[in-house]
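INFO  loader      accepted 1 record
INFO  loader      residues=110
INFO  predictor   begin
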Amino acid sequence: MPNRFHAMRRLFFAAIPAMALTSAGARAQTMVVDPAGSSPLLGALNWVQGTLLGNLATSAAVIAVAVVGFLMLAGRIEWRRGLTVIFGSFIIFGAAAIVAGIRSAAGALN
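INFO  predictor   done
INFO  writer      dumping tokens
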């Protein structure tokens, strides 16, 4: 069991610099022109993104991470489930940087 924990911890700390490089590359990209007729779809998706990443969602994520952290410290929830909640919120709020990194990597392949 300790070996699995140490392996997960090494993976987590190895992923932090990769995420930092991904978000730094996203800022250096050029602006891509949207296809004609996509403005209603983009407007709807921007509304969904604003709702999912707005102040209410950020507050809910902070409360969820705090509650899960407290439950993990109290021994009322297993660590694997708690880390799933915390990593899930990192993925939700870092989705734009993750997609930008994937797009830049795909552009470098061409």
